[in-house]
Design a protein that fits this description.
- The chain is about 15% helix and about 35% strand.
- It is mostly beta strands.
- It has one domain: Substrate Binding Domain Of DNAk, Chain A, domain 1.
- The radius of gyration is 15 Å and the shape is globular.
């Protein structure tokens, strides 16, 4: 499945289980509190969030999503692995606008209207997620593939995500 995240703030993007993701942080959240919240949701297996740029560069990310494909370790800019639990039948790609509006206002949830179109149909279960970034937006360079910018590979695992080491902070975060 291929997606083009071409609207909204993409300095941070991620994938979230909308059924379980606890969106609200505070009406007047501080950035440090938001990063801590992201880490808590990642630790719970409800989301994986990535900082895509150190320079604040907006980019329309071409995202390739593969489900139940063997994990690979290709030539790439950078890679990360995490675990997520799917409690329904779908996940969503989310951007910084979606995450921050939901963090600030109780009535806003993940996904927002824009991110609903980044719907990932996937079976209920526990997944190891490999994140492969090919495009370095800060240096305008591809490593490995150039037909996609980032790839998410979901591999179903038999054990619950609580039995696997979980990420507890935003991937590639420099703050």
């Amino acid at each position: 499945m291929e997606y083009l995240m071409n609207f909204g703030d993409t300095n941070f993007i991620g994938v979230a289980n909308a059924e379980q993701y606890n969106s609200f942080v505070d009406q007047d959240w501080e950035f440090d509190a938001l990063l801590k919240h992201f880490g808590e949701e990642m630790r719970r297996g409800n989301a994986l969030i990535f900082q895509m740029t150190e320079e604040g560069i907006e980019h329309s990310w071409k995202v390739d999503v593969e489900v139940n494909k063997e994990l690979v370790y290709p030539d790439c800019y950078r890679t990360a692995d995490g675990y997520m639990e799917v409690t329904g039948i779908e996940l969503y790609l989310v951007d910084y606008d979606c995450l921050t509006m939901a963090a600030q206002f109780r009535q806003h949830k993940v996904p927002d209207k824009n991110c609903r179109r980044y719907h990932i149909p996937i079976e209920k279960g526990n997944y190891r997620v490999q994140v492969v970034q090919y495009y370095d937006v800060d240096n305008d360079e591809y490593t490995g593939r150039s037909d996609v910018d980032i790839q998410l590979i979901f591999k179903k695992v038999s054990k619950s995500t609580s039995e696997h080491p979980r990420a507890d902070s935003v991937f590639w975060c420099t703050y």
